[in-house]
Amino acid sequence: MFYRQALSVCLFLAASVSLASARDLALVSNKSNAISALTLPELVKVCKAQTSRWPDGKAVTFVMRAPSAPEMKLLLEKIFELPESQVRELIASANHGRTNHPAILVVDSDEDLVNKVASIPGAVGVVDVYAINSSVAVVKLGGKLPLEPGYILHGN
Length: 156
Fold this sequence. Notes:
With 156 residues, the chain is of the alpha/beta class. The chain has helices at residues 2-21, 40-47, 73-80, 84-95, 110-119, and strands spanning 25-30, 37-38, 61-65, 104-107, 123-128, 136-138, 140-141.
């Protein structure tokens, strides 16, 4: 009887952990940015700091949670296509010599991410869909909005 209960608890915890890491993410932008949509290749270039300026001339800043955060597993797999250690190296090299305006900014929470994107002209970030508020604009990715079928940053 004890083993059955212990097994049930372990299965429940395993299911909870996998659901927690399978979040739906969204691409958000500073409201002053002229962009309302990006293609997947454009997002990859932004995330990897290969795009330094938007068409309107504003400097690009990509804001993200730490690569080690469970929420970022989807972003690392689908966008960076790199393991966590290489993403950390990419961030360090992208920001080298850019102390006043980093190419990639790492924050501690979804709330911090939304606040940073809202306060930095030219900033975009990837955040949990349920952390979005009116201070940022949601950007279409590949012609789709978050929660639409086929959206690339869907967590399942």
